[in-house]
Amino acid sequence: MRILLIGSGAREHALARSLAADPATSALTVAPGNPGIAALADTADVQATDPAAVAALAQQLDADLVVVGPEAPLVAGVADAVRAAGIPVFGPDAAAARLEGSKAFAKEIMAAANVPTAMARVCRTIDEADDALDSFGAPHVVKDDGLAAGKGVVVTGDRQVAHDHAHGCVSRDRRSSVVVEEYLDGPEISLFCLSDGTHVVPLAPAQDFKRLGDGDTGPNTGGMGAYSPLPWAPADLTEQVVQRVALPTVRELARRGTPFVGLLYCGLALTSRGLRVVEFNARFGDPETQVVLARLESSLASALYAAATGQLDTLPDLRWSDDAAVTVVLASAGYPASSRSGDVITGVPAAEALDGVHVLHAGTGTAAGGLVTAGGRVLSVVGRGAGIAGARAAAYAGVQQIAIDGGQFRTDIAAGR
Ligand code: AMP
Ligand code: GLY
User: Fold this and answer.
1) Which atom of ligand 1 is nearest the CA belonging to 118?
2) Ligand 1 within 6 A of 323 CB?
3) Residue 150: which pLDDT band, with cuts at 50, 70 and 90?
4) What CATH number should be reported for the domain holding residue 14?
5) Domain boundary residue among 257, 285, 314?
6) What is the DSSP letter of 25?
7) CB within 8 Å of 215: residues ≥ 6 apart
8) pTM
9) What does the pLDDT look like over 249-302, one tens digit per residue?
10) C-alpha dist (Å) from residue 193 to 203, 281, 283
11) How many domains does the chain have?
12) Residue 178 predicted with pLDDT over 70
């Protein structure tokens, strides 16, 4: 199978690593890729959010399958264009990607499909938002309706901060809106489900760490670390999510004539009142993918192809390693408010020489033959081992080998799990 993978983060490096090692893959091109990906696959230059350019590249490569990593190309209609060119694509059309692209749309689908989620109000004016903030009470949850790379959500006990964020969201333009919702307590879980538009196949559950600082302090980020499996989760968790969340959602989108083909990312809270959806994403999560794929023993290429071609019901059961996996994200100075480029990165080969450790690139570049920072999240160090403790020890042993000037990482990823 000739595969074109779109994206350039550590998630795509993880996908590329699995696809490159897969006997079902005969050729792999990643566009645009990054320096780590370039070491294991061909790379091509493309504007990832340009549907016509991606479709043209897929045709030129004679691709059998296109896999779209990030959300922005999906929301821009890249999957639509590739599908229109007659090439199977793992990734939803723009209409179905609205599940991630619009928080208000996601709420509408969940209501229609009777999927458990936080009570919410979609507000178009600051007066409506203030009213909703008062009626739900603290802690306040305020979500920008549009895509914001994990940074559009504010959870705060401070009424003024909540008001200010809501104000910023509704006043951006005439059509902008903000979602104000009930606070969900309890641990969060990410469960990825492959969907072919009709059938759903769950992957292994993971948990990510969204806040920048140890002890879940500081601002929300794209994710600072993750682990899988979740030894503490209820045994029937995956089945519950498939039956109560993923299947009803996929059926509702199919009913509307916009089937969801790709990765339905179910972000859930296990609250004292039961399972609730915190968010949907329309693509693999970053950094959860790094740990989920580190444990997958079945052919990823075959699974994604089955989803892209409506054949998930014929896919053999996925096999998972008994090992656990933990990833720790190394971010550049200033992240998440900004990111600093050009800082020298050392120690990646030494980390990779350790048993059970591999290093995935995100915001990296090369300068004078060496590796430098080129983005907010720079590297994902992945450790595998017996149990979470073993995987965690491997990941942090890897982190210890690496130095980035001004670099930031959490020291408590998967601690005590
Ligand atoms: P989202 O982009 O919707 O996933 O929100 C980002 C993060 O904000 C989530 O992963 C949660 O940690 C937090 N969050 C979102 N919605 C809620 C909620 N209703 N209650 C508590 N925390 C939330
Ligand atoms: N790790 C959260 C996300 O991918 O959105």
Assistant:
1) 19
2) no
3) low
4) 3.40.50.20
5) 314
6) -
7) 412
8) 0.95
9) 999 999 999 999 999 999 999 999 999 999 999 999 999 999 999 999 999 999
10) 6, 11, 10
11) 4
12) yes
